[in-house]
Specification:
The protein is mostly helical. The protein has 6 helices and no strands. The radius of gyration is 35 Å and the shape is rod-shaped.
Length: 183
């Protein structure tokens, strides 16, 4: 685990702001950096874990209702209904919904009235999932940017240490030459 001073130090050093001015995403990223743990998560998994039965059902209805299989099957049922009620059953006087298919129109209107809000619920869930994904993408991008900044700091420190060592060696050589010592 880490302490708050490490996170506060990272906040000032990498973001240039004190810890109390950071939002929740930034705090989560800094904590993950300080603890050296992964931060990436799957938006679909997070959303599915919180989804209610009704939300999952609306997704399934939208997936079925928006497929070619549904369109083809529904078209076949409609054509069958019209064929049965116009020719086949009408010959024996048993057509339960003769032309102009008023009962069929009622059923189609009812289906549309029920299906439209369910599909809208699914679209709302999809947009919520997109917002979660955007937030997670922001956290990952921020983490990558901050880690790159930390790597640059480390490389700069290594280079400074190397240059100081070279300067010390040059200074020693000059000192030796002044004292008449040859290498």
């Amino acid at each position: 685990m880490h302490d708050k001073t490490t996170t506060a130090d990272l906040s000032l050093r990498l973001l240039g702001r004190p810890l109390d001015e950071l939002d929740a995403d930034e705090l989560r990223v800094l904590d993950a950096i300080a603890e050296r743990r992964l931060i990436s998560r799957d938006a679909a998994d997070l959303d599915d874990a919180e989804a209610s039965f009704g939300a999952r059902l609306s997704d399934r209805v939208a997936a079925v209702g928006g497929s070619w299989g549904f369109i083809i099957a529904f078209t076949a049922v409609l054509l069958g209904w019209m064929l049965l009620n116009s020719d086949v059953l009408a010959r024996w006087g048993m057509a339960f919904d003769p032309y102009p298919f008023i009962f069929l129109n009622l059923m189609l209107s009812t289906l549309a009235a029920i299906q439209a809000p369910i599909i809208m619920m699914s679209q709302n869930r999809a947009s919520a999932k997109d917002r979660i994904a955007a937030g997670l993408d922001y956290e990952i991008n921020l983490r990558a940017e901050l880690e790159i900044m930390r790597l640059h700091e480390k490389l700069d420190q290594m280079r400074i240490h190397e240059l100081v060592g070279q300067l010390d060696r040059i200074e020693q050589r000059l000192q030796n030459e002044r004292n008449g010592i040859t290498p």
